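name: query_chain
kind: protein
chains: 1
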Amino acid sequence: MTLILCEKPSVAKEFAKVLRCRPEQGYYQNEAYIVTYCVGHLFELFNPEDYDPRYKKWAIGDLPIIPASFQYKPQSATKAQAECVLRLLRKHKNDSILVATDAGREGELIARIVLNHAGIDTRQNCKRFWVSEALTGEVIRAGIAAASPLSEYDAIAEQGYVRQRADWLAGINLSRYMSIGNTHVFSVGRVQTALLNVIAVRNYNVAHFVPTPYYELPIALTDSGNNTVQALLVNPETNNTAFTSNKGYIEEALKHAEGNRRVQCAVESRQRRERPEKLLNITNLQKKAYKQFGYSPEYTLSVAQKLYEEYKCLSYPRTPSRVMGDNNVDLFREKFDLLKAKYAGISGYCDTNLIANGNTHIFNSKELEDHHALIPLSDIPDSADEAAKSIFDLVVRSFFTVCMPDCIFTENKITAMNGKYQYRAGYRVIADEGWKKSLDRKVTVGADKKQKEEEEEEEEPQSVLSFDAHNCGITGCGVVRKETKPKKEYSIDTLLSLMENPRDEKTDGRLHGIGTPATRAEIIKTLFDRNYIEENRKKLYATKKGLYLLAELKKDDDLKRITNIKETTEWEIQLNENPQKFLERIKEYVRKCVKPVSREKFEITIGRCPRCGNHVRESGKVYYCANKECDFHIFREIAGAKVNSGDAVLLITGKTTGMKQCVSKAGKKFSAKFKLDKDCKVEFIFGKKQTSGRRDRKVTVGRTAAERDT
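structure:
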């Protein structure tokens, strides 16, 4: 008998289908195999109070909290499945065990924790199924046959353990340290705090940027066929095209160009090919969904998860990979043939000869991580909502575009001499648009969203149908004044790009990626939930609370290290090189950080109390009057609806909030606006019922009722 341990129910189902196992409660079975599954992490690390009840109260004297040995407990939501998996493992611990959790550090960690809890210490009978490709029958059978001893993956398991424990040590200790004695809870994390600092630094640099004026002299070059390209005067002192003044050399060049329109050109040409964008992973899907539809990363992930689990029309969404495996050519072609007729408007641009082994742009097992790229598995049902169709359309476009011909063009660089004055121009002549022909084509019939990919921020070279550089002249010229510009504020999509490919703010050097494709959305959501950042017109800004935290951390040389994105990425490298040494460094780090300190409490004043006129302040759970003798307060959550600081300002100034989506104590959803009544208590205002024509109804929320609701 062989027991196969999978990470997800859907994967176990695929194994069971290939191995012809019958379903049981929490597993599948036949005469030769038992296939069971986790539901992600079945176990979680102890909370501090699980080690010692005294840690339930946050006290500076108890820090740092460094367990002698880390312990785990079952996740409450998956306790029943954990018991099922442990029972099966204990029963078959002497049989062959095949670990088939996801091929990555997190999947390895999930399996090892379960094996430890089952008491399986001797693992000579344990093997590892390590496959990142789509789980077709052929791939599953080949993976089982090629399974290696589990011990070969001990190093990856150790990295998983250490990363999880290091994050616990930094998060638990520094969050408590920064929160004790304050009126707010300040969450600190190895990734989230560094990311907050990146946003704050960009905010500061933009706000304090002083533009520097500079000048350019563009000339229009037009050939006998009336084709025009623009060239710029070269500064002989710097060899670039910017001038600090519009006097002197640039003025002389302009005067000469106005009086003499002839030029002599030298051209350097080379043929180039531009491939279509690779298949999407979850991070790229989140960026596109945000740019085109304004969807937050966590919302996009939830929609993709629905497409995967409910509609079963999308491959596993939490993937970091942008390629398929070498053995997935037949799978790709099968889905292509299945969907090409429905999406004929775009599939007609494809070259099916590109769906083949050897095309490493699509099929490249060396680049696979955990799971293959996102692809459609079937068509989306008509009953799906607009968000699901929008996300699915992005995947469909990517799927068909990746097997379209390259865009072929000639890249030309012109050096134009107007007397002694040198000008430079770059332009491309497109020979074959290839995949770019499809950019304006709709994907789904009836879709009302334009699917053309937005241009990247970098300007593309000017394109012309043709240009005769040896027979052209100046048809226009004039000095242009410009100003240097700061880097743009981060938006959610550019923040995701930064997490994928971070750069040092000072040197712009590339750093190791932070977070994982599966966790980046949650990290950004945490920054919003903790009220560390806010969004205004798609730009991200650090809040007063976020800036306070960073300022306090930066007062100490040790603490400020956790605000540095370069430090965070270097920790990731150290983790990979020597996990145990890295963990000891983290322990020493939190010991050095926790020291006696006196800091000013963080307070946010949002306005005046409608009862006594004193300041109304904001804390983690409530807006309250600073006058201790006044009991006025508004909870930050009422009947399941968030009350943000803007809502609170409206309420204390006698105004009404916008419509809120609420949940009653009985679990029933309803919509209402909030307003303060004459006693300064929050009341619900329900909208009119159109059928009856009745006016808005009001229901007062008493303090105890409001407290129960929160």
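note: The longest strand covers residues 407-418.
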